[in-house]
Amino acid sequence: MSHTMFVNLPVQDVERSKEFFTKLGFQLFGMGDEMASVVINERTQVMLLAEPVFAGYARNAVAKPADSTQVIMVIAADDREGVDALFEKAVSAGAEPVGDARESFGRYQRAFTDLDGHHWEALCLVQPA
What we know:
Blueprint: E1 5-11, H1 14-23, E2 27-29, E3 35-41, E4 44-50, H2 51-57, E5 72-76, H3 80-92, E6 96-104, E7 107-113, E8 119-125
Parallel strand pairs: 1-4, 5-8
Antiparallel strand pairs: 2-3, 3-4, 6-7, 7-8
């Protein structure tokens, strides 16, 4: 059985986050003042929830992404060029780079934090030379 995945993220400003992810080339769905869904693919969506809305669902205090990392979200690309293109779009839309490009264990990846400080990576599988 195949399942759909929804990842919920607290954001400070839903409109600003919607603009950021639109600049990365993602479609949005179910938008409102306090939430919007970023469609990663037909089976995966990232729900952007205003912090008070997110807090209403959370059992514990909402972590501040600038202070700690609870999760690293990774988006797969087809090749190195796709990884670099997503990374460059993110940085030009206001993301902060995290470290250098890495190639190890058959993967090429680049990391950035979004406007709220959530850690993202673009990754592709690479064939050994």
